[in-house]
Amino acid sequence: MNPATAMVWVQVGQVLVPLVLSTLDRIKAFASTEGADAEQLARLDVDYAARIARAEQAAQ
Amino acid sequence: MQTRRKWQLVGVVIGLLLMLAFLQGCALTSTQKHQAVIAATAIHDGLAAVQDGEQVLFEAGKISPEQHRAFNAKLVVALKAGLAFDHAIEAWPNGGPTPPELPVLVKSISALLDEIAAIFPDSDAKAAILVRVAQVQQAVISVLSLMGGPR
Fold first, then answer.
1. What is the mean pLDDT of chain A?
2. Total-model pTM
3. Which of A18, B2, B9, B71 has its CA 20 to 30 A from that of B24?
């Protein structure tokens, strides 16, 4: 590999490495938020079901 | 041969860049979805506060049985809209556009709350209900701004 080509690859690496690292960080944050959000929505669904039953009974 | 290999490498780099852009885009959508979950929680908590607050007032004799029934008949619809809002977020695929039903549902919740507030004549009970209604309306405004403003 000639020095000019090597230089190009070094520059490509300098762009790609931080991008890969920041994407990995985002994926980690994404995975943990995704799980917590799904749990939260499931909790809300259960509470909504109980409240709807209560309100339906009171509406009669 | 060497030129072909070079182009293969360039293709790999471009593919990697596209993959990274896609993953970053997914994470961005997730942020929006996460904000929608926060808004859904605020709407739920507001509706729960409206229901619990009315129950306390009813048990204290400040609301008539007729008002209590009329209130709950409207609240059932608002609670079902809240549940449908949750389901729409749950079904929101990562990387997909914002579900169009979200702003429609929050607007219907908002309209139902106006109807609920109208059930009560001016009184301390109405003021107490209105405080909780305002809490939900605040969440509704945040959802609409999340969806790019009122439609």
1. 87
2. 0.73
3. B9
B96-129 tens-digit pLDDT: 888 888 888 888 888 888 888 888 877 777 887 8
* ipTM of the prediction: 0.74
Q: Which residues does A contribute to its contact with B (CB < 8 Å)?
A: 5, 12, 16, 19-20, 22-23, 26-27, 29-30, 33-34, 37-38, 40-41, 44-45, 47-49, 51-52, 54-56, 58-60
Q: B91 to chain A: nearest residue by CA?
A: A38
> How would you write chain B as a 3-class SS string?
CHHHHHHHHHHHHHHHHHHHHHHHHHHHHHHHHHHHHHHHHHHHHHHHHHHHHHHHHHHCCCCCHHHHHHHHHHHHHHHHHHHHHHHHHHCCCCCCCCCCHHHHHHHHHHHHHHHHHHHCCCCHHHHHHHHHHHHHHHHHHHHHHHCCCCC
> Which pLDDT band holds residue B150 (cuts at 50, 70, 90)?
very low
Q: How far apart are the first and last CA of chain B?
A: 58
The pLDDT tens digits for B51-87 are 998 998 899 898 899 999 999 999 999 999 999 999 9
Token reading at B17: 């860049």
Contact status, residue B92 vs residue B99, Cβ threshold 8 Å: yes
Asked if B115 is an interface residue toward chain A (Cβ–Cβ < 8 A), one would say no
Is B64 in contact with B147 (CB distance < 8 Å)? no
